[in-house]
Write a structure and sequence with these properties.
- The structure is a homodimer of 398-residue chains.
- Chain A has two domains: 151 residues, Aspartate Aminotransferase, domain 1 (Alpha-Beta Complex); 221 residues, 3-Layer(aba) Sandwich (Aspartate Aminotransferase, domain 2).
- The longest helix of chain A is centred in the last third of the chain and has 22 residues.
- In chain A, the strands form three sheets. The first copy, chain A, has a seven-stranded mixed beta sheet, sandwiched between helices. A three-stranded antiparallel beta sheet of chain A has the order 9-12-11.
- In chain A, helix 11 runs parallel beside helix 13.
- In chain A, strand 3, helix 6 and strand 4 form a beta-alpha-beta unit.
- The first copy, chain A, has 398 residues and is α/β, with parallel strands linked by helices.
- The mean pLDDT of chain A is 96.
- In chain A, 39% of the residues lie in helices and 15% in strands.
- The radius of gyration of chain A is 21 Å and the shape is globular.
- Chain A contains 13 helices and twelve strands.
- Chains A, B: It comes from Anaeromicrobium sediminis.
- Chains A, B: Keywords: Aminotransferase, Pyridoxal phosphate, Transferase.
- Chains A, B: Belongs to the class-I pyridoxal-phosphate-dependent aminotransferase family.
- Chains A, B: One of its GO terms (molecular function) is transaminase activity.
């Protein structure tokens, strides 16, 4: 009655580990500010539900394994606004970015192959790789460098004959770093010189602050056949529950191979694809408004966090997360303590311990904060965090 | 610029192979009767769209990785009507039965492990296993035995120290066999004696004809912790495009392990889960009516096919497929010929070559027919098949 080694080797979701503590806190009528999750509170454009509500289909049918044609066509138009030119046979619709990444990795790597990923990284990268026997080779980025990439040499030192690809999210979850043109070009050069693919998770590409330049790997023509963009409508349109993502690449042979995996699950859901096709027509002022909201939240949060003594912090350039270093030994213990042993005016905060975003034994004194709640709530939550941290460090003597 | 061995070893969808011929036929204005696909033409219960149209949610949010609570609760109630008693922590919602099967196999088997499957089987079983490095060990069932299972000895001869489970669909796609109580009990005994799991794909369980008794593996209490039911709403409610399935097992530890995989893809789509929760409340007369429709179709098709000389045929007991043996050497060549080189009054039929439903080198002279179209169309399609077969055998001299 054994289970597979592959499943036993996988960790339980680190997010889930804290959930029972949050539930216990709430059952004691504590208010919990959720700084731990990436579920935006912005409204999904009404186009989505309006279109679905207008449908008169009598049968909820299978769609094409590649994805709904209209949805793909609208993706093509949408990318044109970014200066990216893709054709129908260069895009596959997936069940969120998660499935897109899983299928891409399955098509590129065998058991024992390696993928280089700058850490800290989105924690599910590790689980997805582990589930299919691919080894993550982390390359550490540091808060002191504002989480920008280490040197070309450092990357090259990580490459072995098992290395298949470099995977990164840009802007980054969890750090909020937006890679510079030089960084993108260095990665591209490494990919070309060492025969690697680049998997670029750009699901946060619409969240770039301070008019910072965003450079997509999709623009780097000399390595176009080595680049796979992983995309999703979840964050862009605040439609996480629609589970609509895409795999985008100029490598048509790769698309043909990944299609085999798409066919095994027949298709993505019909309704969500129809709604998603509408989402891609959302007027640009939606982004302007939501970007403005997130920028204000980032600024408010950053300013509040700056008031907390002895923490290390760097201003995020994109996405809606920040990683901060705390004056504690074990940030997970602190996160549990906040939920279980602490409250201020019967309120507390929930954070994500950042060690789960590393593959190396690092990040023990770091946490990730998501700023997807209201500005006033962010201020209150930061103040509670400040008070909690003072009390914790006093109690624990660290 | 290589791809993984795992993806290169996978076959392109055998269904897809004939699609260009069907498209070419249609572009010549030939009418093509689709006897090749399992997309039912019955209306999805209106409850599904009505509920979704009534929603007033402003944000399309992530749901729980285990699945929407109400949907799980309604599954529990639904199974009670079948005499099956499951709890919340014994059910996971999946993106169709396909994902349910993939996750179950990933949790049970490592690369090189073996799964015994009676053949002919649903062709994607092979692809799903192949994608994760699990080897299919087929055990052949024959049209002459009405596709019932071979002896206990035959099964035991297939078991090695790599065997993890026996997987079967009941009623079977593609054969329409419904396994007897004795067959189910024999499999259960083998599972117990040889420490195996039983993965029972029961997505067609509501399509049982002639008041034949259906026995679910979920009823076999002595091996309850070894049984995993794979279920789906696709066929039952004619809602294939909703992609809502489930993994159901009394083995709570297995659920806990599979949940790790569910968490990696965050959740199933929100809307489809809400609609699916309603589907499970569909009044029983929907099944009575749709079962009646399919039974009539089966009878009409069976009677028409009986009129074709030199074919071997057995009456399906369930599901909505039939496998028939043709007096040809290469049924795939015949299927292509029907689309490319033949028409009768400018009409032709599309069939599925059955060799793709085997893992052994068998089924070359067999095809699968799905009876998911109208009775009159089935009669016409059968008559066209008869004429086509006469002409083909005359031309090819077989």
């Amino acid at each position: 009655m054994n289970f597979s080694k592959r499943i036993l080797n996988m960790n339980e979701s680190p997010i889930r580990k804290l959930t029972p503590y949050a539930e216990a806190a709430k059952s004691q009528n504590k208010k919990v500010y959720h700084l731990n999750i990436g579920q935006p509170d912005i409204e999904t454009p009404h186009l989505f539900m309006n279109k679905i509500k207008s449908l008169e289909d009598k049968i909820i049918k299978y769609t094409s394994s590649t994805g709904n044609d209209e949805l793909i066509d609208n993706f093509i138009e949408f990318y044109k606004d970014y200066g990216l030119d893709y054709k129908r046979d260069e895009i596959l619709i997936t069940n969120g970015a998660s499935e897109g990444l899983l299928f891409t990795l399955m098509a590129l790597g065998d058991v024992g192959d390696e993928i280089i990923i700058p850490e800290p990284f989105y924690t599910n990268y590790k689980g997805i790789c582990s589930s299919i026997g691919i080894n993550v080779v982390p390359i550490t980025t540091k808060i002191e460098d504002a989480f920008h990439l280490p040197s070309k040499e450092d990357f090259i030192n990580k490459i072995t004959d098992k290395t298949k690809a470099i995977l990164l999210s840009n802007p980054s979850n969890p750090t909020g770093v937006v890679y510079t043109k030089e960084e993108i070009e260095t990665i591209a050069t490494i990919a070309k010189e060492h025969n690697l693919y680049v998997i670029s998770d750009e699901v946060y590409r619409d969240f770039i602050y301070d008019d910072k330049e965003f450079n997509s790997f999709g623009e780097i023509n000399p390595i176009a056949d080595r680049v796979i963009l992983i995309d999703s409508l979840s964050k862009r349109f605040s439609a996480c529950g629609a589970r609509i993502g895409s795999i985008v690449t100029k490598n048509k042979l790769l698309i043909k191979e990944i299609l085999k995996l798409c066919q095994l699950r027949l298709c993505c859901p019909m309704l969500e694809q129809i709604g998603a096709a509408e989402l891609l027509k959302t007027p640009k002022d939606y982004f302007i408004s939501s970007l403005d909201t997130y920028k204000k939240r980032r600024d408010v949060l950053y300013n509040e966090l700056k008031k907390i003594p002895n923490i290390t912090i760097t201003k995020p350039e994109g996405a809606f997360y920040i990683v901060i270093k705390l004056p504690v030994k074990d940030a997970e213990d602190f996160c549990i303590w906040l939920l279980r042993d602490f409250s201020f005016n019967n309120e507390t905060v929930m954070l994500s311990p950042a060690k789960n975003f590393y593959c190396s034994d690092l990040g023990h004194n770091e946490v990730r904060i998501a700023y997807v709640i209201d500005e006033n709530e962010l201020i209150k939550a930061s103040q509670i965090l400040k008070i909690g941290l003072e009390k914790y460090t006093l109690e624990k003597g660290c």
